[in-house]
């Protein structure tokens, strides 16, 4: 049986892993959004594709680069925390 303290500890670890894996993509989306917004404000260009396409390209590039890190982080979390719990450890 899973105790309440162990349950909350696992949920806390899972939320931290979610934060760690999402930070690279969210940071690039924020920075590219600010850069495009600043460019639009300085040049008075109000093109809708200009806000979407550069952010999408930046996010895809960072996702491709950080995919190994994200996979390794998730695999480590599952093998050290969830798999032993499912197998009856702890």
Q: What does this 3D model show about the protein?
A:
The protein has 90 residues and is an all-alpha fold. The protein has one domain (14-79). It is 89% helix and 0% strand. The protein contains two helices and no strands. The chain has helices spanning 4-43, 48-87. α1 packs antiparallel against α2 (48-87). The mean pLDDT is 91.
Structural class: mainly alpha
The helix/strand order is HH
Separation of the first and last Cα atoms = 10 Å
Count of distinct strands? 0
The DSSP helix count reads 2
What is the multimeric organization of the chains shown?
Answer: single chain
Flag low-confidence runs.
none
Give average pLDDT, whole number. 91
Q: What is the count of distinct domains?
A: 1
Helix content: over 70%
Proportion in β-strands: under 5%
Shape: elongated
Largest sheet: none
Give the C-alpha Rg.
19 Å
Could you name the key traits of this structure?
90 residues, mainly alpha
Topology:
Layout: H1 4-43, H2 48-87
Helix pairs in contact: 1-2
């Amino acid at each position: 049986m899973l105790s309440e303290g162990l349950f909350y500890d696992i949920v806390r670890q899972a939320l931290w892993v979610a934060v760690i894996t999402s930070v690279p993509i969210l940071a690039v989306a924020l920075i590219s959004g600010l850069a495009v917004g600043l460019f639009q404000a300085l040049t008075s260009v109000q093109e809708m594709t200009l806000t979407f396409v550069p952010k999408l390209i930046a996010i895809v590039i960072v996702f491709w680069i950080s995919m190994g890190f994200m996979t390794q982080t998730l695999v480590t979390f599952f093998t050290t925390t969830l798999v032993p719990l499912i197998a009856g450890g702890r």
